[in-house]
Write a structure and sequence with these properties.
The protein is 33% helix and 6% strand. The protein has one domain. It is flat. A two-stranded parallel sheet has the order 1-2. It is mainly alpha-helical.
């Protein structure tokens, strides 16, 4: 999970899940999960990325 995906690519990360902000990449920690649906979606995308075989750096975008 990375806010600046170009840095992740340049260092050779093989699975990259773009996040939303530098201080709080997966959303506002002060909010409850029902108020911050993005958090769950990002974590689910990260799990999917871990389950996916890749040959080169791959960005797992929404969708």
């Amino acid at each position: 999970m990375a806010t600046i995906t170009t840095i992740s690519e340049s260092v050779g990360a093989n699975r990259i899940v773009p996040t939303v902000a530098i201080p709080y990449p997966v959303g506002d920690p002060a909010l409850e999960s029902k108020e911050e649906p993005l958090r769950e979606e990002l974590v689910e995308r990260a799990i999917k990325a871990l389950k996916t075989d890749v040959e080169k750096p791959t960005i797992f975008k929404k969708g």
